[in-house]
Every structure is written in structure tokens, then in C-alpha cells.
Specification:
Blueprint lengths: L1 E5 L16 H11 L3 E3 L6 H10 E3 L5 E3 L1 H8 L11 E14 L2 E11 L2 H14 L9 E2 L3 H11 L4 E4 L19 H5 L8 E3 L6 H4 L9 E3 L14 E5 L4 H10 L5 E7 L9 E3 L4 E3 L1 H6 L15 H8 L13 E4 L2 H9 L6 H14 L2 H7 L2 H5 L6 H9 L4 E3 L8 E3 L3 H8 L1
Protein name: DNA helicase UvrD
InterPro entries: Pol/histidinol_Pase-like
């Protein structure tokens, strides 16, 4: 079965997340986007675990579904052209902060389990180590290598994926607190790491510049902190629609089962370039290197972004030769509408046009990548078809994100927008 999966999200129990980030809103949003498999996120949090136990039922082996008395009431809120079965996979992100080899390490890791009993068993062990109540993404003084060992001991098919591996502050390879290799982090258990998450600020070609990542599946996920951000990155699979089908697709890096990813343009990510947000300084890696990594305004150390870190660890210049699995770079539909309409992506005007498109054409991923432009033009929204075509063909301009600020996308110049709208 061919399907789209978003394997990294959070719940309303995580810090800085929307209060609407619950199973019900995720179920609706997944259908709007065209996603069939969604990570639960935060399964280590006791409050969220109670909700998972009470609202979910076993479906295909290792996958869960909403209880029919809940999903039945929600289906009427979803346009008929978007309706699909939505499944959940048990997961959580864990923040490991610890000292290793004389340096403080801050790594975020994603963990996955095939059943609620395994999660319960894992949570009991985790709760003895630190506080798993205060945040949906627990912060623990636990070496990532020993976290992996705990995961493997909990269930033979539980697995761990290092999250957004290039992010400066909290990741496996980040410039501020990461390692220079996967082995340095996970040591003897490294063979059990078979996938890594690229994060919003990098894409597959950037990762393929680093040869030690060649044998790892590169997954992309939304890290959604609100239902609307679900699917801003996602994975395309063609497997048996169950936990082991997903497990083997990720582990074997088979291009016939792991078909590719939908990606942010990496420049859109908020840590792509280097800089200092407070000083208004945005720099390329080459510019930062000439300055010795110091801000030209305040003289303090710059936040060195993902591109800089990739350059540091890269050992090849032509990643396209090693690209094994395809990817598709997209801009979220509401962001495209925001530029066309000249208003914010979360305004009522944008929301109204978004609903018109979804109701008339179908799920967002289908509109953004698969649908014929002539079909999109039938809705009569000025220059929408041209905008989507330009995004598909990488005919856009992006002011790169840096030091926590997202990049800014421009599809049309002001002159082009006027001309095309006539």
C-alpha cells in the first residue's frame, strides 16, 4: 500500500504547543493533508498516555486507530474528497542532556514502539531516571547510547531515530552540542541506528555530502507543534500497512518500499544559515569562516547553522551521484496562498481560500505535487496554478532562515504578480 507518514509530532502536553494538539485534531488534519500514518508523539507523558489508552484501539499490527464513536463524529467535518483511514504509531521525542568526552551533549531522539504494553514498560524505567511529567518531551540526564539500549531491551522491534540531526542546539551532529559521527554518540550500538531525521533546515542532497550517512535512511517529518503544521515534511512509503512493514522499509533502505520524502526547501528552515538574530546578522558559511565564527556587530560567537555544519563534516562535493531515494521540495499551501493574497498564512482570508481548494480538489499533498495544473486552475483562484508550478520547478527565491528565524519565500516579484493577475 502506498501511503504518506509523518513520524514526528508533539501533543498538547509539550511546551510551546497548541492546546488543540490532540488526537481528534490530528485525525482531521491528517485527512486534509493526505496523510495516512501519524506518530502520536509524547507517549512517555503520563497524561498523554492515558488519552492514548482511552481513545485508541489496535488496528493493523502495531498501528492504532481512533475509537469509532470518536472518529464517526469527526468524519463529517472532513470534506468527502479527503476522507481516508488514519492510523497512529506510538512514539515520543526525548531530550538527552549529558556530559561525554569532556563536552555537554544535547541530543533529541525519537523512539517508536509497537504496542501500549511496551510503552508502559519503557515509561516505568524512564520515570526512575528523571521527570517525565513536566513536559511531553522529557528532558533527561541520560546518555543517548543508554537510551538506545533501553529502547532495544523494551521490545525487539522498538527503534530509535536521532531527531533533526543538524540543528545547532539539540541534535546528534549539531554545531553547539553534537558529535562528529554517529559512532561517537552510540558507540557499540551504532548498528541499531538505521535511520536519521534530516530536519527542516537540510534536505537529502545536503546529507549525502557526508558519506558516513550513506547507509542510513533519511526521513523527514513535521515536528508539528500545532495540527496545522502536520505534514510540512513527510515520508512516502509503499509497504504492508503495519508496524513491521514500516520497520523493514526504514531499516532496509529499499527504494521500492521507501519511495522518498516531501521536504521544506532547506533555506526555509530556521537554522539553515549562520547569524545573530538580535544583531540582524545573516551569513553564509564562507562569510562566517572569514570572521572566525564571530558576530561582526557584537563580537560574540555566531549561531552556526545547518549548512555550515554540513560543510564541516562533508567529504564529497557531488551528492547527486549518491542520491538513492527521490525527494520533492514544497512550500505549504497556506504559505503559497499568503503570498498570492497578500495577507498572513493564518488569516481568515487565507483560511477561506484553503478550504475552497481542499473541498474542491482534495488533500494538500495531492494539490501541491500530483495534480495537473489545469485541474488546479479550474478553481479560478488567480495565479494559484502558476505559483504551485514554480514551487515544483524550484523557480522561487528564498531569503535563508538563521538563528531561529524561518526563511522567507518569494514566488513572484511585485511586478510579476501584477502582470499575471491581469
Amino acid at each position: 500500500m502506498r501511503y504518506i507518514a509523518d513520524l514526528h509530532i508533539h501533543s498538547k502536553f509539550s511546551m510551546a504547543t497548541a492546546s488543540s494538539l490532540d488526537l481528534e485534531h490530528l485525525y482531521i488534519s491528517a485527512q486534509y493533508k493526505g496523510i495516512s500514518l501519524v506518530a502520536t508523539g509524547d507517549c512517555t507523558h503520563p497524561g498523554w498516555f492515558v488519552e492514548l489508552e482511552s481513545k485508541l484501539l489496535p488496528a493493523e499490527a502495531g498501528f492504532y486507530k481512533l475509537r469509532p464513536e470518536i472518529s464517526g463524529k469527526l468524519d463529517v467535518l472532513v470534506p468527502s474528497v479527503c476522507r481516508r483511514e488514519v492510523r497512529f504509531i506510538l512514539s515520543s521525542e526525548i531530550s538527552c542532556i549529558y556530559k561525554k568526552d569532556g563536552k555537554v551533549r544535547k541530543n533529541h531522539n525519537l523512539v517508536y514502539f509497537p504496542d501500549l504494553e511496551s510503552v508502559k514498560k519503557f515509561n516505568l524505567r524512564l520515570g526512575r531516571i528523571g521527570n517525565i511529567v513536566s513536559d511531553g518531551r522529557p528532558i533527561l540526564g541520560l546518555d543517548s547510547r543508554y537510551l538506545l539500549e533501553m529502547v532495544l531491551e523494551t521490545h525487539e522491534h522498538a527503534f530509535l531515530i536521532p531527531a533533526h540531526i543538524w540543528t545547532p542546539w539539540f541534535s546528534l551532529l549539531g554545531s553547539k552540542s553534537g558529535f562528529d559521527s554517529v559512532e561517537a554518540c552510540f558507540e557499540d550500538l551504532t548498528p541499531h541506528i538505521f535511520a536519521v531525521e534530516t530536519g527542516l533546515s537540510s534536505d537529502p542532497p545536503m546529507n549525502r555530502r557526508v558519506s558516513f550517512l550513506d547507509n542510513l535512511t533519511l526521513v523527514s517529518n513535521s515536528d508539528a507543534h500545532s495540527p496545522g503544521n502536520l505534514g510540512r515534511e513527510a515520508n512516502i512509503l509503499d509497504t504492508e500497512f503495519d508496524y513491521m512493514g514500516l520497520y523493514h522499509a526504514l531499516k532496509n533502505q529499499n527504494s521500492k518500499s521507501f519511495l522518498g520524502t516531501y521536504e521544506f526547501y532547506p533555506e526555509e528552515g530556521k537554522y539553515h544559515l549562520d547569524g545573530h538574530r538580535k544583531c540582524g546578522v545573516r551569513l553564509t558559511p564562507e562569510e562566517s569562516m572569514k570572521l572566525g565564527g564571530l558576530c561582526p556587530v557584537c563580537g560574540k560567537a555566531l549561531t552556526l547553522g545547518v549548512l555550515y555544519r554540513v560543510c564541516e563534516l562533508s567529504d564529497r562535493n557531488h551528492p547527486e551521484e549518491k542520491r538513492k531515494i527521490p525527494f520533492h521540495s514544497l512550500v505549504p499551501l497556506k504559505n503559497i496562498l499568503s503570498e498570492i493574497l497578500g495577507v498572513g498564512p493564518n488569516t481568515k482570508k487565507t483560511g477561506k481560500s484553503y478550504e475552497q481548494i481542499i473541498n474542491g480538489l482534495g488533500p494538500e499533498f495531492s494539490v501541491l505535487w500530483e495534480m495537473e495544473i489545469d485541474n488546479i486552475n479550474t478553481l479560478g483562484i488567480p495565479i494559484l496554478g502558476e505559483a504551485i508550478l514554480r514551487v515544483r520547478e524550484n523557480r522561487i527565491t528564498i531569503e535563508g532562515g538563521y538563528d531561529g528565524d524561518y526563511g522567507k519565500v518569494e514566488i513572484f516579484s511585485k511586478e510579476e504578480k501584477k502582470e499575471l493577475s491581469i
